Fold these 3 entries.
Entry 1:
Amino acid sequence: MKNKYRILKIVITVIILGFLLSFSLKKFSGQNITDEKISVKMNEKTPVYFIDEKDIKQIVIKENPSGKVGDLNIPELEKRINALSAVDSANVYLNLNGKLNLDIKQRVPVFRLNNDGKDFYVDEKGVEFPISKTYSHPCMLVTGDVKKEEYEKLADLVDKIDKDDFSKKYFIGISKYKDSYNLLTSEGNYKVEIGDLDNIELKVKGFKTFVEKYLVYQDPQKYRMISVKYQNQIVTTLNPYFKENDSILKAGHKDLAKVPEAVSPAKKAEINLKPTVKKVSSTSSKPKETAKSKAVVKNKTTTKPKTKAKVKIE
C-alpha cells in the first residue's frame, strides 16, 4: 500500500509541475520583446562602427513582426545577423525574464585594398568585405594586383608594422608592382622595395639599420628607391630630380662612357701616292728606267682616321 501512495504522489507532483510549467511557458511566450528588453553587445577589441545597436534592433523587429517571445525564431535570427558582411560572429539567446541578448563581433579591417578600381576591406583572417557608406575605418592602404592567397601574409605584415613604433612611423602604405611589394614612406619620395612577403622581419630590420646608420645623415629626397629584397645587402636608387645628385649622376655617365663599345669594322685608309721621277739625259735614245722601287708606308690609325702614306720611287 505504501508503494502505491508513493507512486500516486509522484504522479500528482509531475502533473502539477507540468501544469505550472505549461502555464509559465504560455505566459513567457506571450511576453512582448520591447526595445528595453533587447540587449546588443559588440565584443570586438578594436572599436568599429559598420553596424550599431539601432541596425540590429531593426533586424530583430523585421524577423519578429508580432514582437512576441513565442514567435521569435532564434536560430533564424542568428543566421540573419551572421549573414551581414561586416559581422564576424553573432550569438543570440533569451533570458528567463524575456530579455533578448545579442553578442556580436564585427570584422575589424587590417587593410583597405584598391585593386583594379575596386575598394574593399580585408580582416585578419583574410576575408574581404565591402566598404561602408556611413563609416570609414583608418587602416593601411594597399594598391595593386594582390591575390587572395596573399591576404593573410599581407595582413600579418600590416599587423607587424602597426605594432612596431619604428615601422609605424615610416610606412604609410603598400603597393604591389608586378610580383614585387613596395612600402610607401612618410619621408621623402622614396619607396622601400621588399620583393615578396617572406622574411619580412629581416627585411624591415635591414631598412631600420640603414636608416639609423646612414639615412639619418642624408636628405630623404636623395633617393627614389631603397631595396632590401636581396639577401644581406641594400641597393639604393638615386632621385634624378634632386639637385645634389647631379654631380654624382654626371660622374656615373662619364664612367659609362669609358666602357669600350663593340668593335666596329676598320675603315679603309686613304693613300695618296706622289711619285718623284728623275729625268733622263736627252742624248740617250732609249731612256733607262729602273724598276726597282722602295716603298715605306706609315699608318697611324689610333690618332687620325685618315692617314697618308709616303712612297719613294727611285
Entry 2:
Amino acid sequence: MFSTVNLPALGTRFGLPVFFIMGEADLLTSPAIARTYFDSITAPVKSFTLVKRAGHDPNQAVLDAQWTILRDKVAPLIGH
C-alpha cells in the first residue's frame, strides 16, 4: 500500500490531535514508514503507540492500547 500512497501529499499539518496505534509486527502498514510520516506531522497533540506482538488485525492487545489512549490522552482533551 505504501508504494501507491504518498502520505505527505495527503497532509502533514493538522488542527486536531493525532494518535497512531499500530502493531509492531504489522505487515500491511510498516511501522517504520508510519513512524517517519508521524514524525513529519504537526498537530496540537500527537502520540505514536507501537503495540508489541501485534500485527495489522485487531486483537486484545491493540484494543487495550486503543482504550488506554482514549481514556488517558483523548478524554482529558475533551474535559471528561
Entry 3:
Amino acid sequence: MEKPTFKYPDKAAYEFVIQALAAKGITYHEIAHITYNLQTKYVPNLTIKECEMETQEVLHKRELLNNAMVALELDRLATEGQLNEPLQSIIASDAGVFGVDEGLALNMANIYGTIGVTNYGYVDKVKEGVIKKLDTDKSGVVNTFIDDLVGAIAAAVAAKIAHKYA
C-alpha cells in the first residue's frame, strides 16, 4: 500500500532514464529522427525541431518512465551478470521467445493509443538508426530491452504527432 507521505519522484525518474540512455550514447535527438522518419510522409510540414519537442514531452510521461526504468535496469543487471538463472541467460542472449522486452515496449508505445502500437511494430521490424546499432551490438553489453525501449518512445511520439494532426 502506498504511504500517504510518498511523493512520486517524477524528476528523479526522468533523470534516471535520460542518464541511462546517455550512458548508451542515445539522445532525444536520435529518437526524434526516428519519429520524423515515421511521420514525415503523413505530416509533410513536420520538422525535426517539432519531433524533438514532442520527444521531450513524451519522455516526461510517468507511465513511459516507469516502464523505461524497469527495462534499463534489467539490461544493466544482465550486463553485470546480476540476475538469477535462467533469467540471466535468457535476457543476455535476447532470446526471441522471451517477449518481455517487447511487452514493456508495447506498454510505452500504447500511451497515445493503438497507432503507437502499430508504429512500434514497424520500428521493431525495420530497426532503423540507433535501434539497429543497439540490436547488433556485440560488445558484451546487454541491449535486450533498450533497443525496444528506443523504438517504443519513437513510436509513442509518432502517435502523439498523428493525433495532433488528425
